[in-house]
Amino acid sequence: MPGTPVSQFHRRWGVLFALAVVLVLPAADDPPAEIATVPSDPVFTAHLLDGSTISGQIRELGGKDELVLLSNDAKKRVIPLRKVLNLTRDGESFSLSNEHSVLVFPHGDRLFRCIDITATETELAFTHPVLGHMTIPLESLLALVVNLPSNPDAVDALLDRVRNESRKSEVLWLSNGDRLAGNFLGLDSMKIRFQTENGTVSLERNGIQALGFDPALVTEAPPEGVVLELTALDGSRLGVSKARMEQGHVVGTGRFGTITRIPLAELAAVHVRSPAVEYLSDREASKTQYVPYVGPIRPYRRDLTVDGHQFRLGGQPYDRGLGTQSRTFLAYRLGEGDRRFQALVGLDGRAGPLGSVVFRVLVDGKERFATPPKSVRDAPTSIDLDISGARLLILVTDFGDRGGVRDLADWVEARLVR
Questions:
Q1: Which domains does the chain carry?
Q2: Segment holding 154, helix H or strand E
Q3: Residue 55: is its pLDDT beyond 60?
Q4: What is the pTM of this model?
């Protein structure tokens, strides 16, 4: 009868026997323990240099110069890093945060949401919600944005200013629009001490927009081997070398020499920087020509739209590329090892409904690629051209349906593959 000692004995041993069968005889389709899936891990899509893609959860990134993905069918895919262009997180992209302060480094590295910032004349200490508490040499820093504007356009303009405005000393940009040149002396929780030609001043932090350092004095530890540019969900980006996976974190040495750890859960994208790829925004065009429809010329911009903002193409943000207007000709000399030209092109999201642009690519004077007039409603178009043996690449941004109206053209991640 149910509830008797004998029936309880049989039921207990029946359960134990069933558990033993499960433990001793795993299903044939179960993946090995070392690559078992973890449902909470994000899924990334790896974009390879040959144009193919592979999706899965990251199990190794950098160790042995390899990428190891666990695909949806529980198969382990091992890919040499030299064949990987980038990884993007499925269903997520980064968005620049306007909270707290920003540290700006060379090569596009930046850290948003920094708090508890203090500094001497030689080093700066801060806390980041992902990286924790860190101390870095001041000579590795290009700028400190103390107070970010609330308007996104003003944020873009300020970040552009601290990166690119010419200066031969330290500079303070004040909230009232003034600009002070001199020497930085220190920073505490309330004030910045600064040496000007008229003497030492101590200024309240809430009255300061940004502090820029002399770009000629910025130094960094040279990277060893392949560099991974890690972009977090808050828009922070760091280049690291000697990367590896440790307990769900990507660990590597930052360009400023400090060990950094970024959880996979906070990662939005990874770009692999190796000799196999050269982004055109990393160098000046060999020759430029502008033929505006009406009005003034707007020169092309590197890693910004032609009007100085972050790229927004197909609803997604991008860090790297060329921003142009019609009509613009950009010429690049090619080398023996250059094999392919690749890019993603379209009208920037800021262009609005009236913008229209045609994209053309000429190789040694012959047109090899052209789009119909593209508007902001059109999906971005991928370009992948064989340029083996060619000597000259010309990128043409041409007039669309309405001349030069709102012609904010993006050549996102324009690159040469070797």
A1: 101-217 (no CATH), 278-417 (2.60.120.1060)
A2: helix 152-164
A3: yes
A4: 0.86
